[in-house]
Design brief:
With 176 residues, this protein is mostly helical. The chain is 63% helix and 0% strand. The radius of gyration is 20 Å and the shape is elongated. The two termini are 13 Å apart.
Length: 176
């Protein structure tokens, strides 16, 4: 049993039957998707190319950052887990950000990529940004909230997900 409205059944452009509001609604999440995709790709590449970051200790290292926020984080046990292998944790975050950014930008498994972005943002908010006072100075909470519409809606336009759906529909000769 299925429920709800399918966004992928609409025509890609106005053909005289719709209005500008329909078009604006269909493309409303595209700027957010591009921003988050590019930002997470940049963040992942920045970490991977920063030799100071990928160290267990020293100024600017992931290990030093984790030690600095350990006592002020919401979940110190999560920070302790990262401190068991700070370099491995740094690589996991960097490659996770890169995968999330690419998936979001090209719209491949977009909901899963957005969920990954939300989980990365949530973990960073509960550890690194938690001590921000007032809370809105920490950007990880804002990123978490920005990911949620993409978790719910996915990437219905200019995405590999939409192209694959259209191709499946064309092969089956119907609505799927």
């Amino acid at each position: 049993m299925t429920h709800g409205t399918r966004m992928d059944t609409q025509t890609p452009y106005l053909d005289g039957d719709g209005n500008w509001r329909d078009t604006a609604t269909r493309y409303a999440l595209l700027p957010l998707r591009v921003f988050l995709g590019v930002t997470f790709i940049y963040a992942g590449l920045d970490k991977l190319t920063n030799s100071d970051f990928m160290k267990a200790s020293g100024a600017g290292s992931v290990g030093e950052t984790m030690r600095a926020v350990r006592d002020s984080s919401a979940i110190p046990a999560l920070v302790d887990l990262s401190l068991k292998n700070p370099v491995g944790f740094g690589y996991a975050i960097a490659f996770g950000e890169l995968a999330v950014g690419i998936g979001t930008l090209i719209g491949l498994l977009a909901r899963i990529a957005a969920l990954g972005g939300a989980l990365i943002s949530l973990s960073l908010w509960l550890t690194v940004s938690w001590q921000s006072n007032p809370y809105y100075y920490g950007n990880d909470l804002a990123y978490l909230m920005a990911w949620l519409p993409l978790v719910l809606a996915g990437a219905s336009v200019f995405s590999l997900d939409a192209a694959l759906r259209a191709r499946r529909r064309q092969r089956t000769g119907g609505y799927r």
